[in-house]
Design goal:
By secondary structure, the protein is an alpha/beta fold. The protein has two domains: 3-136 and 177-229, Alpha-Beta Complex (Spore Coat Polysaccharide Biosynthesis Protein SpsA, Chain A), CATH 3.90.550.10; 138-175, no CATH class. The chain contains six helices and ten strands; from the N terminus they run βββαβααβαββββαβα. A hairpin with a 2-residue loop joins strand 2 and strand 3. It is globular and about 55 Å long. It starts with a strand and ends in a 12-residue tail after the last helix.
Length: 241
């Protein structure tokens, strides 16, 4: 069973330009993902999918083969990871390297570890679902969310309004969000459905500190703060004090 470790890393980003090349803890976000993929020992090939020459150069600096770029239209909205993954699978298939299993590692989740990938794969194999996503629990339950309209509040989930917090009972559901750190797919089924939110969908739960997903300047500052204070890594050039 051949496994492709896919790292989608386009150059463009609306809120944080060229974020996949930005440093956290002395490594680019691409390097964080490549290291985790390699150290997991699960990937027969690790590949960075990009349309950008600088991202390609970073992948090659890390010793990866990048024989093709993705088409420019797959680096712009509304194209998403599904289309990028199918393109990569097709291109490697044309080069005589078909894959049975796909592991998608978003570079914006730098603190996912090789052990996270291995643990997720163990759950994936035991679940038999063919689809797995890593998840983390939000700081606040979305069951308590309020809808603000014209200066007035209304509960998003009124049925749970008085059954959360200190009044929470055993029936309170565990709420999680996909964090983008690890997604594992059965390639044959993925090709058929062309989607990865397919249920039943297995889950690998990660702590919030390893689930940071960098999409804004604020996210980047927080990740660099964690890299220094939680993970003991050197400061990046230009880090705020």
């Amino acid at each position: 069973m051949a496994t492709l470790g896919l790292i989608p890393a386009k150059a463009g980003s609306t809120r944080l330009p060229r974020k996949n090349l930005l440093p956290v803890g002395g490594r680019s976000l691409v390097e964080w993902a490549v290291r985790a993929a390699r150290e997991s020992g699960l990937c027969d090939r690790v590949f960075v999918s990009t349309e950008d020459a600088a991202v390609r150069a970073e992948a090659e600096r890390l010793g990866l083969d990048t024989p093709f770029l993705r088409p420019p239209e797959l680096a712009r909205d509304p194209a998403g990871v599904v289309e990028v993954a199918l393109h990569a699978l097709d291109e490697w298939g044309r080069r005589g390297e078909p894959f049975d299993t796909l592991i998608i590692l978003l570079p914006t989740c730098p603190f996912r570890t090789a052990e996270d990938i291995r643990a997720a794969m163990d759950i994936y194999r035991r679940s038999g679902t063919g689809f797995l996503m890593s998840v983390s629990r939000p700081a606040q339950s979305p069951l308590t969310a309020q809808v603000l309209c014209d200066g007035l509040l209304s509960p998003l989930h009124p049925e749970w309004l008085f059954r959360t917090g200190a009044k929470a009972g055993a029936d309170l559901p565990v709420m999680v969000n996909a964090n983008g750190a690890v997604t594992i797919l059965d390639v044959a089924r993925f090709r058929r459905v062309r989607e990865y939110y397919v249920y039943p969908l297995a889950a690998y739960e990660m702590p919030r500190e390893r689930s940071v997903d960098i999409d804004t300047e604020e996210d980047l500052r927080y990740a660099r703060f964690l890299a220094r204070t939680r993970f003991g890594l050197d400061e990046d050039p230009g880090d705020p004090d």
